Amino acid sequence: MRTFSLLKGMSVYDRNGEILGEVCDICIGEEGLVTDLLLQMKGFIGKKVRVPVQSVSSFGEDGIILGSNRQYSKYRELDNEYTMHHGHPLAKKNTMTPHGEQLGLLDDVYFLEKEGTIVGYELTDGFFSDITEGKRVIRTLDPPSMGKDAIIVSAINQRGGNAHDEMSELSKQGPW
């Protein structure tokens, strides 16, 4: 299980060990799956490309290795796709339950690397609240409804507010 914040800035290598670039964002489909990694390519131009999650051979602690070379394409913003910070950004978007309860602002997502399935959302109530209470993590099994102004998630379990509250404990609570 990974978070976007852990992947951001991580180097991506082809199978020959050549660095392609660094992860600068993730692409999330309407069904709530991480479909692609968005890379800032090395070089002066610094173009952005998308790499399908399925083409990743391994997610390491210090780098990402692709299964085969040239499995990337130029990044284009798609209407039915979201990212954390680029086209249709989700970061800092209001997150609510289907019953109208405000959960907080989206700060990060937890997902299963190979499948791209988002299993948790890290939420913030603001800087001071994060310092005093900590960020909250909710988990969900259902895909979110992503709208222009809010993300609607079915929260199965809401945890958080404590400094010792870590996502590693979340993986013990779910079927994944």
TrEMBL record:
Residues 4-65, 100-155 form the PRC-barrel domain. SUPFAM superfamilies: PRC-barrel domain (SSF50346). Pfam families: PRC. It comes from Siminovitchia terrae (Bacillus terrae). It comes from the Bacteria. InterPro entries: PRC-brl_dom, PRC_barrel-like_sf. This is Photosystem reaction center subunit H. Gene3D superfamilies: PRC-barrel domain (2.30.30.240).
